[in-house]
What does this fold into?
Amino acid sequence: MRMLGHILWLTVFGTSLLCIASFVSVNTQIVGLSLWPFSTIITAEIWLVVLTSMGFGLLAGGLVLWLASLPLQVRCRRLTKKLAKADAQIDHLSEQLADSHRHPDDIVPDDLSPRRLAR
It folds into this structure.
C-alpha cells in the first residue's frame, strides 16, 4: 500500500512539473505591474507573475486553514487529557472491584496491610 502511495505521489508531482514547465515555456510575454499609490512600474514575464501570485494564494489559504483549525486542536488536546484521566480512573475502579470480589480464603497476609485496607 505504501508503494502505491509513493507511485501516486510521483505521478501527481511529475504531471504538475510538466504542466508548470509547459506554462513557463509558452508564456514569455513581458507585462508591467503597478500598484496604485506608487508610481513605479515593475516589468516581469507573465509566467513569473502568475506563479508568484498562485504561490502567495496557496500560502494565504494554508495560513487561514491552519488558524481555523487551532480551536479544534486545542479541544482535541483537552479531550485527550480528559480521556486519559477517565481511563486511569476506570483502571483504578476495576482493581477495587476485583479486590472486593475476592474470596476470603484467597487473601494473602500482605493484602491486609493498613495501607491496602484504607483504599
